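The passage that follows is intended for readers who have already worked through the single-chain material. We present the inputs for a multi-component assembly, then the predicted structure in tokenized form, and finally a short commentary. You are encouraged to pause after the input and sketch how you expect the pieces to fit together before reading on.
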Amino acid sequence: MTGSEEGAFRFDDVGFARPDVGREARQGLAEVIYGPGKQTVHIVELVRHALEHNEGPVLVTRVDSEVAADVTAEIGGRYVPEARLLAWRPAETTDFTVAIVSAGTADAPVAREAEAVASALGLATVFIPDVGVAGIHRVLAETDRLRAADAVICVAGMEGALASVVGGLVGAPVIAVPTSVGYGASLEGVTALLAMMASCAAGMVVVNIDSGFGAAVAAFRIARAARKDHR
Amino acid sequence: MTGSEEGAFRFDDVGFARPDVGREARQGLAEVIYGPGKQTVHIVELVRHALEHNEGPVLVTRVDSEVAADVTAEIGGRYVPEARLLAWRPAETTDFTVAIVSAGTADAPVAREAEAVASALGLATVFIPDVGVAGIHRVLAETDRLRAADAVICVAGMEGALASVVGGLVGAPVIAVPTSVGYGASLEGVTALLAMMASCAAGMVVVNIDSGFGAAVAAFRIARAARKDHR
Amino acid sequence: MTGSEEGAFRFDDVGFARPDVGREARQGLAEVIYGPGKQTVHIVELVRHALEHNEGPVLVTRVDSEVAADVTAEIGGRYVPEARLLAWRPAETTDFTVAIVSAGTADAPVAREAEAVASALGLATVFIPDVGVAGIHRVLAETDRLRAADAVICVAGMEGALASVVGGLVGAPVIAVPTSVGYGASLEGVTALLAMMASCAAGMVVVNIDSGFGAAVAAFRIARAARKDHR
Amino acid sequence: MTGSEEGAFRFDDVGFARPDVGREARQGLAEVIYGPGKQTVHIVELVRHALEHNEGPVLVTRVDSEVAADVTAEIGGRYVPEARLLAWRPAETTDFTVAIVSAGTADAPVAREAEAVASALGLATVFIPDVGVAGIHRVLAETDRLRAADAVICVAGMEGALASVVGGLVGAPVIAVPTSVGYGASLEGVTALLAMMASCAAGMVVVNIDSGFGAAVAAFRIARAARKDHR
Amino acid sequence: MTGSEEGAFRFDDVGFARPDVGREARQGLAEVIYGPGKQTVHIVELVRHALEHNEGPVLVTRVDSEVAADVTAEIGGRYVPEARLLAWRPAETTDFTVAIVSAGTADAPVAREAEAVASALGLATVFIPDVGVAGIHRVLAETDRLRAADAVICVAGMEGALASVVGGLVGAPVIAVPTSVGYGASLEGVTALLAMMASCAAGMVVVNIDSGFGAAVAAFRIARAARKDHR
Amino acid sequence: MTGSEEGAFRFDDVGFARPDVGREARQGLAEVIYGPGKQTVHIVELVRHALEHNEGPVLVTRVDSEVAADVTAEIGGRYVPEARLLAWRPAETTDFTVAIVSAGTADAPVAREAEAVASALGLATVFIPDVGVAGIHRVLAETDRLRAADAVICVAGMEGALASVVGGLVGAPVIAVPTSVGYGASLEGVTALLAMMASCAAGMVVVNIDSGFGAAVAAFRIARAARKDHR
Amino acid sequence: MTGSEEGAFRFDDVGFARPDVGREARQGLAEVIYGPGKQTVHIVELVRHALEHNEGPVLVTRVDSEVAADVTAEIGGRYVPEARLLAWRPAETTDFTVAIVSAGTADAPVAREAEAVASALGLATVFIPDVGVAGIHRVLAETDRLRAADAVICVAGMEGALASVVGGLVGAPVIAVPTSVGYGASLEGVTALLAMMASCAAGMVVVNIDSGFGAAVAAFRIARAARKDHR
Amino acid sequence: MTGSEEGAFRFDDVGFARPDVGREARQGLAEVIYGPGKQTVHIVELVRHALEHNEGPVLVTRVDSEVAADVTAEIGGRYVPEARLLAWRPAETTDFTVAIVSAGTADAPVAREAEAVASALGLATVFIPDVGVAGIHRVLAETDRLRAADAVICVAGMEGALASVVGGLVGAPVIAVPTSVGYGASLEGVTALLAMMASCAAGMVVVNIDSGFGAAVAAFRIARAARKDHR
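Having made your guess, compare it with the prediction:
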């Protein structure tokens, strides 16, 4: 840890939590606040702290509309209800484009979270819903848009087969998000998770079940790598 | 159980086993002999008994080439090595066509078992190997042959995604066979099994892991249903 | 994809969804609408769209009675409460007969869904409930009706043993449906699913837990195969 | 622990083991020696010790034929190869009859272990192999013999459905033994274990996978309960 | 099936169900009615039917107090609230004694169901609660009562260790009942189930999670075997 | 699929396989040949075909040294024994740098596969082995090298904790590879897989167990995204 | 059991339970009362009994605030709401210090239970929350306090990686507590449990999911061992 | 990290590994070398390095006798074959006593590893084998020796019940080691692991399956805590 990076390894102690205020310096993104189980007063305090000690976007995930209303009444911010996301100081949109493709209408909340987080972090997004493989021509019709993207987030529940198809169509990074959509043998998303892991499409990567958020941050990391000058 | 069906519920006692000699009358196919764990002498005795008390095909599954050589030296029969199948009195080929489509070259033994059993039971077969979804255009190029088939057996390991794609392409019955091909998250075929079960393609059905045999008999049952006069 | 099939690979974009309007051409059945998680207004819009762009039956599955009342108030349709099914333009009944046999009274909702969907798709149905193997004479007494059927759907929870018994009684295709009925070691239907997969009855096939719908569509696919002229 | 039972709670220390020499007094059966992983010299020493400090049968389970030859060369005893059992001082046969019924020929080693242990413990046995439910008439033909038995041990792998059928046929105690026979979804016997646990046949009980030994001892416990004078 | 047993294989068809009215003849106990998911009117009808077509006890299990009040208002019967059991025509108590031993106070509902069902079926019962192995002297203090019993039902959740201890203390049949008591690694009773299955106490048998009912019927089967004259 | 991309959707049929010769056009990398289960003659034929129909690197994975010797005797190529990789026409090294960090010495084969594949695909690599978290200062000492990398591949078995630590140290994409190293509760890599999926480090992605290959291709996809001009 | 220890093996029978009143003599801590599922009247009775028959601390765990209010209204006691703990007669604080370190704010309830129980048992505590490994510098900043502790309790959900890091930092006993915090692949705490078990940090030990209580008692056992005079 | 502790955070780089030479300073024990998968030459090099850079005991675990012979021929050392342990410079025995109690003779290798590692680390050991709970009087007879120990390591496979019994007998720390002994439902040690985790004995802790080594190091950590002066 060289001295010049000192800021990357700071943290504060606010009693009930230790905000990692070096994270923006280390990773280009302030510590994101996970909403569930937190009291509104704590969310407000953490957001205030984050706004003060960071310069870029501040996010709270998985917030329902009532809590969101209470929080925004206190400290403003924008709420994206279909993504259950609260955001402050969204980044300016860059030319790094992420296509978010999803298998069924029931996968929408997860796909929308991926889209909203990616947008707030400055990625350009293309949203392609309801192209599950039972009607394979739907995703094939999107081949050009998918191949034009710099990265693809593929959201699917049940057996998660869409990810393998998309992984084979494009050369860009493909981030698969298993969802808990389905019943019986879909085992609350575990089947899709395992299937995506075992996929025959080489070089596809996977994040946690229902984690549209995780996929968007993975895309953000890739965009950072791309922003350097490589050839 | 009406009197005329009496023959359908007979069985013999040969000491170490009770051959279900009514099965051919009940189901159109003599009891198939499962090879593993049986002494060659017992296989020979069961085949002899089956040939004598039935009229149609007699099969032994999962037989390696050495045992097969010993058995055929005693009582003839045809051995299909890539399917590990021994067969006597194969049925005449009918016009009921089963397409057997498989995802990768490693799935070949299971696909070949399905093909060899289906052939022995009188089904016409079309064999379409190595069309996994990582190169989706390969299976799409076979759309016409798949749609022309009366039934489709789809063999796939790893994440098993091919089954969902095929299930959405054709209106015929699709019998999915998960295979134990793959490593890690493929869990020896359990992942493909669960994924096929949870598939978004409506009306697809699944048999046990690596059971090319089971899939072929399922197709045979369907062919029997089709042989009646329906409109 | 030959030109004459162009219609088989169409789809529409209605914003929140991409109805696969080629599915009826491809598979003989319009895309079925899965009810859970959808707003009533979306169900109505999808049904309207389906009625307009298809010619045959239109179905919505897993709809509770209140939603059903709202939907039918808007666009008519028939609701089968014990199957939680909404149907429009049911097909004319053909002579392809499916026997639906179930193990216990608690399996009734799944069995009724299978029956209602099969009926709506034009299959003749025979309903044989509560013949679980703990009183094996009950299912044996139905041997004649089971053997007369062109296909059998077997619905069972707990250990799912009925499927193996029925699979051995008849030569017709047997589609096993595990249900989530039971407690403890039945693991919400996973035990029945695995047991049906591992069944000793050759050529039996399995669909997802509680999927009476999937079993009925599988039977419909078989009936389509049977409608061709085979001998 | 009253004084008169003192003998029931003795044990010896032979260095590498602590034989529970009170077990015969407590349970009517000397501690049975589990063969795998033991050196022949230790087996011989434990058998000698058991013969000296007990009065009834002494058993060693899961012994292969080579070890058995070495042991019997030293201290006699009878070896039952198909059950892999070594026995000394078998009990006189009583009138308590156990029917041992098994589903397939591959279940034979487990069924034979149950039979050999039961015989050595003085139970009369009836052996009914290869009556799996895919040909249900085979087990039904044995209804009288099954119903005449004082207890039934039911051995089955794959989906284990035979146990539920037998459990419903007879009023006697039914001890189900899942076996590791099968592949894929049979999960090395776990599926049969769960299925037997979840069985719809009331009052059936289950022992460990492949434990013919456990089932026989369970029957022995029941026979002891029956030897008292109840009405 | 000899003619004299004809009555053992009868059943009725009451529309929504097929009461197995031969079961009392086959097994000495009328088909027990499983309460959950049944409408009160159906429970009443099934109880009436059972009372009419059988001679001995009639039971409904897992009934909450409100349903029980409605049912008994219609057709009488006795309700045991801590066991959630409804009973009619309980059998006279015999001299076959079942000790019901449980590990913790939270296991009481399962233990009480075992006791109430056993009592209704004419077994004498001894109830020994809260003797878990963390204070091993509690169960040891009951050694005499346990060893005096003709059979023992052992009810335990968490790790289920009590069953192994009791299985080693007595020579009588021991029926282990895993319960869903516990959290985390107890996996809703699956851990106790597996542990009881894998027990080092030879000849112990296991029933489904939380099935005090199943254990009591198992004991009843043993009592029937004991009622014959063996020596 | 626009005409200009026609080459991206070609494939050949060589009898036993259908090489996806459009893959290099689609994804920048020819179809990689999976070695296990293939005959040497087939490997040679597939490599020849790949060399002829593609322009860039050709790889065969998981090849042991004997097969490698036979193959290279026929058609040359370079074998990397510690990675079990065969490579032809490796790409020129670019300035996109991947750090490959591994937890223990036993993880070396997987880490070496990642390194060898990445190198063959033209990525610059930095290899940092044996920095497991039980001595956390070892990985911290590499902070500068890790943070200088464009992407990080993190290889770890047992509990896989290293991935979370690295995921929090750097802002670049982190690709976690669970390995099957460990025993007992590590469940052949499943525990590490689940742990990496559930990681608290936002935006980390995961590939299949032991798939150094998959991780390297994922890095290659990212490098492709980075080669475009983004800011 | 020597005579002088007689008191260590006493218990009482209060009807619904058998308080193990010898436990304080055996283990230095009276039997702790598990709150869930108990009626308030029973909790009061058990506490009264425990206060009377023991000398040291009496605890009730997992009590919500309403029940706590009812109980304390009857018999006093101190309620720690964030730990859901009721305590009477807490022990005097000794110089044995336990550091309680937790990964995230959502782990607080489990960590607080560990702290409150440890305090009530006389251990000195240091509380270090929210130092998860995604910002590894937070826990490193606590190295001195961690290394000064006599034992460390490490509470973490999701992938549980913090435990391995702490296990490598200190030489004192480390007790890992997996929590059910997280979603998807965290499997309600099972992933953290397995990961902690499979940890590369030698000599770390693990307790049940969410069992802050269990960890504190483990620390108490260690403190007892430490109170003897060793060198 | 204060300067005085600098030595605690050193490591070396020997090419194929990074020995954590600060570990002895941090934890009182040099990094232990895990034998499996390492070449003999590497083991020798790591041992030499460890002997040079540390002052206390150096251990290699899980070494078979042939490798051990090769290693000791090069650099001396003592091999304990039944524990598969190589040791150099064992610590002087202290007065901290660990009782190692095991359930069955098949658990001996794990118990012996625990004993040998504990001895090498300077702990006094008491070895109590073969006291499984099926003969509960065997472990009760050891109550005094168990209660005299400063810590107890309890080794058990199958259902692991011994751990709960021992956990309730003594007040000292109890470290439970599940073993892979058993078959069927014991699931290679996973059942014992879960059962020990779910144990009703408060404050028991668990290590990985078959990890006698882990248990001994846990005891060593406790002994270190005890060596400080607490009261």
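Commentary: DSSP finds nine helices and nine strands in chain B. Chains B and E do not touch (no CB pair under 8 Å). How closely did your sketch match?
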